[in-house]
Fold this protein.
Amino acid sequence: MFRVTRESIELQELVRFVTDSEAGAIATFIGTTRNNNEGRKVIALDYEGYPEMAEKELARIGQQASQRWQICRMAIIHRLGPVQITQASVIIAVSSAHRDAAFAACRFAIEEIKKTVPIWKKEVFEGGEVWIGTQTGEPF
Amino acid sequence: MKVKAKLFAILRERAGTAEITKELQDGSTVSDLWHALQNDYPKLNVSGIRLLYAVNQNYVSPDEKLNNNDEVAFIPPVSGG
């Protein structure tokens, strides 16, 4: 299961999806909105995506992970739109026979998401907003 | 030929639109389209920005030749997660 959504993400949904009778481990990662960044007081993060391509890229990450590690099942859901402080923007769940593969694939997935998946976050902070990853030094 | 350009995040805000349909000469590349768009929307010149390009939702090089009805995405540095 590899998708983007504009609704809040439930960890339990992903855990259920990767639950497998051959698995001895399920590793999960939850990315959450933090209340501060580089000295700014963050109010929320607002995610924009290219949904069709983002889902393709998430699926590609899943394929690459299953080529590298012996995993049973994998699920990634990334949220789009505003995500308030403490809420989840992305959840990854991986099941595998032994824990090493699940931990490694989970870590791999979040690092790849940050590199290749067409999703952008705008940080809304006290006094302004800024696109993260696009620091050009120019005023908007 | 006609292609559909898609703009996101800072580029969408700079252009004031998320989608632009553009008429191009046959044999045009992704890079040709980008230069044409920058001509039409000078604010798309964001200094120092490193873009990635996708045609029909697959990453390609800027030299990729375009076909009629292609969907071409200009992808500023991603920041998901």
Observations:
- The beta strands of chain B are 2-7, 19-23, 52-55, 58-60, 71-75.
- Chain B is about 20% helix and 30% strand.
- Chain B touches chain A through 22 residues (CB under 8 Å).
